[in-house]
C-alpha cells in the first residue's frame, strides 16, 4: 500500500490520527495532516483504509503496490 495526502484538501478534522496514529499526525499550528509512513506494514492497512474512508475532505489517497 502506498499512501499520499493532499494537504491542500485537508481540513484538520484529525480522524486519521485518531484511527491510525502510527501512520498519520497533525501539524501543531493548523492541524493539517502529516504523513508519517507512506508505505505502512500490512497490519496497519485496515486502519489506514478506515482513516481514508472517514476523511471528510477526501485528502487521503491509497494505492496498492504493484
Task: Characterise the protein shown here.
By secondary structure, the chain is of the alpha+beta class. It has one domain (2-63): 2-Layer Sandwich (Alpha-Beta Plaits), CATH 3.30.70. It is 23% helix and 21% strand. The chain has 2 helices and 4 strands. A two-stranded antiparallel sheet has the order 1-4. β2 and β3 form a beta hairpin. The longest helix has 10 residues, at 45-54. The termini are close together.
Outline the fold blueprint.
Blueprint: E1 2-5, H1 15-19, E2 24-26, E3 33-35, H2 45-54, E4 60-63
Antiparallel strand pairs: 1-4, 2-3
Major beta sheet, strand line-up: 1-4
Q: Please identify, by name, the CATH architecture.
A: 2-Layer Sandwich
The helix-strand sequence is EHEEHE
Distance between the termini: 9 Å
User: Major sheet, described briefly?
Assistant: 2 strands, antiparallel
Overall pLDDT? 96
* Proportion of residues in extended strands: 15-25%
Q: How many DSSP E strands?
A: 4
CATH domain topology: Alpha-Beta Plaits
Shape: globular
Number of helices: 2
Structural class: alpha+beta
Q: Which parts are unreliable, with pLDDT below 50 for 5 consecutive residues or more?
A: none
Helix content: 10-25%
CATH C-level label: Alpha Beta
Domains, number = 1
Using the CA coordinates, give the radius of gyration. Answer: 11 Å
Query: Which assembly state applies to the chains in this document?
Result: single chain
